[in-house]
Design a protein that fits this description.
Length: 180
């Protein structure tokens, strides 16, 4: 089939993909197609090394031999690095607190829920420090450095995080006193 005859079909398939949304196969694309998820599975876990803290709810890690950005599931901190957006109240403090919780070079365990990646290609994970098993996502919410962000289908810890947020808010911790 010549390119001139194949092009309309390619355009049609791409348009159908856009209309259907995320058409990745379960578990992501194979690593030989640039998916990088060969050792990462929804519902599974992986060991990672923190390379740097990006902001209050995102870290850069090396996992399964690849550089990845990890977005914490279930939490949302005020923005500090979003392009064309102002720095939000308590954003720098939330980022600093995240840097205290997880440091460059530290080993962490990533636990995945039902959806492995977000629309930006970041891994979605519950993050636990290997040195003491601290649940980082929960600590951020409990300290008032983050609000809960429940996005289905990744809701395994939604009730726990909501309880911690209610406690932080009632106690006026972090952003619950600084940004009202």
């Amino acid at each position: 089939m010549s390119w001139s005859r194949a092009l309309p079909w390619i355009v049609l398939l791409l348009a159908a993909g856009l209309l259907l949304g995320d058409v990745r196969p379960p578990g992501g694309w194979p690593s030989w197609l640039g998916g990088g998820d060969s050792a990462l599975r929804a519902g599974g876990r992986a060991q990672a090394q923190v390379e740097r803290v990006v902001d209050g709810d995102t870290i850069a890690v090396t996992v399964a031999g690849a550089a990845e950005r990890v977005r914490y599931i279930g939490v949302d901190t005020p923005e500090t690095v979003k392009p064309n957006a102002p720095v939000e109240c308590f954003g720098p403090a939330a980022s600093a607190f995240n840097r205290e919780l997880v440091r460059a070079g530290e080993r962490v365990t990533l636990r995945f829920d039902r959806e492995l990646r977000d629309r930006y290609g970041r891994l979605l994970a519950y993050v636990y420090r290997d040195r003491d098993a601290l649940f980082v996502n929960a600590r951020l919410v409990g300290a008032g450095a983050a609000r809960t962000l429940e996005i289905s289908p990744n809701t395994a810890h939604a009730a726990e995080l909501a309880r911690l947020q209610a406690q932080a808010r009632a106690a006026g911790r972090g952003l619950w006193s600084a940004c009202l």
